[in-house]
Amino acid sequence: MMATANPLLLPLNAALWQETLHWQPSDRQQEQFQRFYGAVLRANQSINLTRITTATDFWEKHLWDSLRGIAPWLLPRSSPWGASIQRVVDIGSGGGFPGVPVAIARPDWQITLLEATQKKVRFLESLPQQLGLSNLRPQWGRAEAHQFTYDLAMIRAVGDLARCCQYGLPRLRPGGILILYRGQWTAPEVNTLNALLPRYHSQLLDVQDFVTPLSHAQRHCLYLQRT
């Protein structure tokens, strides 16, 4: 009888990582991804963290998609837009996306996971020990009340464009960068963003459009900088 593949084992997809992001995880990072997947599945039985639970979908829609946003910083010795990154915040982290995959890929960055739902925060608080991540700091609270400033902020699946700018841009130091993970990017949104940026003393650095490597879904990442 032929052995069947373990449905709870994440695919390695080393060639896809390298082809699409010019990066691939080390053995330790792959193990941390696997532990994270297991932790999410266990917690998901009692907390609504995600509807994406199969190993292949989790790899593409949570791990790969999270790291696509920081692709400019995955290249060796890269410093896009001259930004020096140490302090990072994931606003509305939910189940830990994109902050936990980013913390795994960039252990030299200090990542705050900011989340307003206490049950989700308790789950996030279990991750540093489970995954062996000393650079991960879950925190309960809302973005508006959070007084710290960061080199880099990330927002994924939180709300409309105006809300994302309201939550993210004031959390940045001058020169800091906000990454917005978006699906479609439309002409009306361009107009909305152009009206919002002066209010927050910010500028648009880049809009990167791409398709996901397995399901070929259209996605965009926006990079905004506080001036």
Automatic annotation (TrEMBL):
Q: What is its main location?
A: cytoplasm
List where the protein spans the membrane.
none
Q: What SUPFAM superfamilies is this protein classified in?
A: S-adenosyl-L-methionine-dependent methyltransferases
| One Pfam family matching this protein | GidB
Q: Which residues form the signal peptide?
A: none
What PANTHER family does this protein map onto?
Answer: S-ADENOSYL-L-METHIONINE-DEPENDENT METHYLTRANSFERASES SUPERFAMILY PROTEIN (PTHR31760:SF0)
HAMAP family on file: 16SrRNA_methyltr_G (MF_00074)
The similarity comment for this entry is: Belongs to the methyltransferase superfamily. RNA methyltransferase RsmG family.
UniProt protein name: Ribosomal RNA small subunit methyltransferase G
Q: Which UniProt keywords apply?
A: Cytoplasm, Methyltransferase, rRNA processing, S-adenosyl-L-methionine, Transferase
Lineage of source species: Bacteria, Bacillati, Cyanobacteriota, Cyanophyceae, Acaryochloridales
Record keyword Cytoplasm present:
yes
Specify which residues bind S-adenosyl-L-methionine according to the UniProt entry for this protein: G92, F97, E115, A116, T117, A143, E144, R156
